[in-house]
């Protein structure tokens, strides 16, 4: 499978199910790549998979694609590969790959099940931009017959918040779109803040759409709980200490990275929120405090 | 009379786009005073108050309302014990001219006080389009200081881009950032300077939406948060939170007249409490937020 086929398969997966996380689509693509690979050695296979992950990061530069790919590779290799026959080894790896995919397809549901109990009846929730995990959580809470209303930020430059508002209106949830600049204004009215994450870093902090950091700072100032919902394949081996430390390859869209020379003129599309501002993280591994994240992260990557 | 008033006000704004809307309003009130054919001083005062209300119906910013009230108080703050009404009017007109002259100089005074706080090599963050901040930065640039500016785009009217254009004309390196990127960019800047649409009794300010969260983030990053405002923007309000600011200031005048359900509208201003402000630069001097109420009382006595 060469680069073009790889990218085409990935794009087809994304088109087929727009509700799927881009990392899940990437992992499906890697599994397909594994099946079609004609390598002769296990080392060669691993190198090819790493190369394939890099290709996919070139298409979709979100943190989750990169972390998801790495976790996939580790998971399938985390088994006895002491067979004489390469095809037997490959078969074992494929089976583990399918298992991994199955586990992560269930992760959003697990997160929603954990999180919806924190939404009390009559709550006013603030969220940022468009997040499918947050949407799933709110769907579950609405299904449990809770009454709540949502404020969602418009989230420039792509106005993704409007998409979120549309989806929430379909669930008959009262929703108000607010300007990114109005977060401080609206925070005195809300009870809690729930955001998704594009990546969860080793310190327990998160990388998410630009605007999340100032929402977290203002929530802390107003003493409102700041909850993060993320699947475990988003855990990534990074330890940024401030905004500058986040690698450029995640800060800008993949197209921008390829075409633009002077990145300082571009608007970054993500920012880093330190763990001190986060109350709790809801993941499919359980409800974690930011400090528990590094333990879980190490277990995943061992 | 209503239409003439509004027309004169609009003409003043068009003639000099660089003039604060409150100054245009005060010119209009002065003209109104000159043309007024009332018979009593009380009637005159009532007419002026009515005229101020008309103008707030055109431009709902806080400064127009406070500027009008301060104008009325200033011109009445004199002995009006003359027998002839026309003599009283003449005295009031003279005081009106004096007031207008004083406030036309206020931006220059503010710029003179503030530019020394901008050190060479400073990175400044500002919000939306403010003519006072622009004047301050012009003065600093004229003093041959090198600095660069980050300005927020400031939705929904993208006024920040206008600010960026004006700064580029001064050859100041400027970067437009998203409203959502304020927290991201704050670790890079040295200080934050914003204008104000109104300064309230507590020493807090009312300004374009987004100022409050910029102030909270500045506090979190320990960066100084400076406000530049002329003294006619001091207003007799004491909001305790965002809700307390009267609706008539929160939305544009057109929106207030046409829309029924205001909760669907985006408010265009927010309130920044005094605890987040480092210093206020006004034509009355450099004030801490707690000193503002003293100065405010002196103005309105």
TrEMBL record, chain A:
Instruction: Give the main localization category.
Output: cytoplasm
Pfam family of the protein (one): IF-2B
- List the GO cellular component terms: cytosol; eukaryotic translation initiation factor 2B complex
Q: Which InterPro entries match?
A: eIF2B_alpha/beta/delta, elF-2B_alpha_N, IF-2B-related, IF_2B-like_C, NagB/RpiA_transferase-like
| Highest taxon of source | Eukaryota
Keyword annotations: Cytoplasm, Initiation factor, Protein biosynthesis
In alphabetical order, the GO MF annotations are: guanyl-nucleotide exchange factor activity; translation initiation factor activity
Cited Gene3D superfamilies? Translation initiation factor eif-2b, domain 2 (3.40.50.10470), Translation initiation factor eIF-2B, N-terminal domain (1.20.120.1070)
As for subcellular location, the record says:
Cytoplasm, Cytosol
Instruction: Kindly state the subunit structure of this protein.
Output: Component of the translation initiation factor 2B (eIF2B) complex which is a heterodecamer of two sets of five different subunits: alpha, beta, gamma, delta and epsilon. Subunits alpha, beta and delta comprise a regulatory subcomplex and subunits epsilon and gamma comprise a catalytic subcomplex. Within the complex, the hexameric regulatory complex resides at the center, with the two heterodimeric catalytic subcomplexes bound on opposite sides.
Q: Which family does it belong to?
A: Belongs to the eIF-2B alpha/beta/delta subunits family.
What the protein does comes down to: Acts as a component of the translation initiation factor 2B (eIF2B) complex, which catalyzes the exchange of GDP for GTP on eukaryotic initiation factor 2 (eIF2) gamma subunit. Its guanine nucleotide exchange factor activity is repressed when bound to eIF2 complex phosphorylated on the alpha subunit, thereby limiting the amount of methionyl-initiator methionine tRNA available to the ribosome and consequently global translation is repressed.
This protein is called what? Translation initiation factor eIF2B subunit alpha
Name the gene: EIF2B1
UniProtKB/TrEMBL annotation, chain B:
An example GO CC term for this entry is: eukaryotic translation initiation factor 2B complex
Q: Which domain of life is it from?
A: Eukaryota
Where is it located? Cytoplasm, Cytosol
InterPro entries given in the database record? eIF2B_alpha/beta/delta, elF-2B_alpha_N, IF-2B-related, IF_2B-like_C, NagB/RpiA_transferase-like
**What GO MF annotations does this protein's record show?**
guanyl-nucleotide exchange factor activity; translation initiation factor activity
Which Pfam families does the UniProt record give? IF-2B
Question: Which Gene3D superfamilies does this one have?
Answer: Translation initiation factor eif-2b, domain 2, Translation initiation factor eIF-2B, N-terminal domain
Q: Per UniProt, which keywords does this protein have?
A: Cytoplasm, Initiation factor, Protein biosynthesis
Indicate the family of this protein.
Belongs to the eIF-2B alpha/beta/delta subunits family.
Q: What does this protein do?
A: Acts as a component of the translation initiation factor 2B (eIF2B) complex, which catalyzes the exchange of GDP for GTP on eukaryotic initiation factor 2 (eIF2) gamma subunit. Its guanine nucleotide exchange factor activity is repressed when bound to eIF2 complex phosphorylated on the alpha subunit, thereby limiting the amount of methionyl-initiator methionine tRNA available to the ribosome and consequently global translation is repressed.
On assembly, the entry states: Component of the translation initiation factor 2B (eIF2B) complex which is a heterodecamer of two sets of five different subunits: alpha, beta, gamma, delta and epsilon. Subunits alpha, beta and delta comprise a regulatory subcomplex and subunits epsilon and gamma comprise a catalytic subcomplex. Within the complex, the hexameric regulatory complex resides at the center, with the two heterodimeric catalytic subcomplexes bound on opposite sides.
What is the protein's name according to its record?
Translation initiation factor eIF2B subunit alpha
Q: Which species?
A: Lates calcarifer (Barramundi)
Q: Point out the gene that encodes the protein.
A: EIF2B1
